[in-house]
Amino acid sequence: MSAASVVLLARGGQDRALSWARHGLATVAVVPLAGGWTGVCPVSDRAVAGPPFDDPVAAVLARPMPRRMLPTIGIAVIGARLAVACVPAVLRPRPRWLVWEPGTGTVRPGPLTPGSVGTLAAAAGARQARDMATSILRDGRGDATRVAADLFTALRLPGLELFLGADDPLAAPGAVLVEPAREDVARFERTAHEVRRWREEVEGSR
After folding, report:
1. CA pair distance 178, 176, nearest whole angstrom
2. Rounded (10°) angle between helices 144-155 and 130-138
3. Residue 169 is part of which domain span?
4. Relative to the CA of 66, which of 36, 141, 150, 203 has its CA 20 to 30 Å away?
């Protein structure tokens, strides 16, 4: 996975995004963008946690979001597919996913919570672009990068350059490199190890 194929767009200001990133698992660039958005972009192909938690896409897009950063929109190329994670500004926020596949268009996101184009357009502040975004995602022609670029344009979202990797994210005006706090990573790995051990013991006792 190239670090240039994923970007998270968040509201709430760069300071809040910086604080959130410091307690995460991936080294990222936090970049102020137009329209009140902040971009969070992994700068490494691996997160700092050990396997199986070393995927920087999951470390950024699937991580719980505080309400003060909402809404958020995450866009990533995963293999041949395009994945869009939207967390709307609601009382109980959680990621809602849209997945596009070449030759098919929109497909079910497996066990993940499915999202809607209407929710995505509302989060982007572009409700009027819902029909256009729907048409883009239903069309199975092209590839994931092209479809993502069309979505950025239709929804008038900033950060396309970060997503495409056309520029070094750390060279962008106001960009800040954030490395996860070691104590937070160690705490996460201890908890994950304890959960795995507990699950093994429970399953072994059946």
Report:
1. 6
2. 170
3. 3-197
4. 150
Is 204 inside a domain boundary? no
* Residue 27 within a domain: yes
The radius of gyration computed from the CA coordinates of the chain, to the nearest angstrom, equals 17
Confidence of residue 50 (pLDDT cuts 50, 70, 90): confident
Cβ 31 vs Cβ 38: under 8 Å? yes
Average pLDDT, the chain: 87
Cβ–Cβ under 8 Å, residues 9 and 157: yes
Closest CA to 73 of 173, 169, 151, 179: 151
Domain presence at residue 46: yes
Instruction: Give the number of domains in the chain.
Output: 1
Q: How far apart are CA 134 and CA 129, in angstroms?
A: 9
**Rounded Cα gap, residues 133 and 67, in angstroms:** 25
Per residue in 169-196, pLDDT (tens digit) is 888 889 999 998 777 666 665 655 554 5
Tokens of 138: 């239903």
Smallest CA-to-CA distance from 2 within 165, 161, 166 is with 165
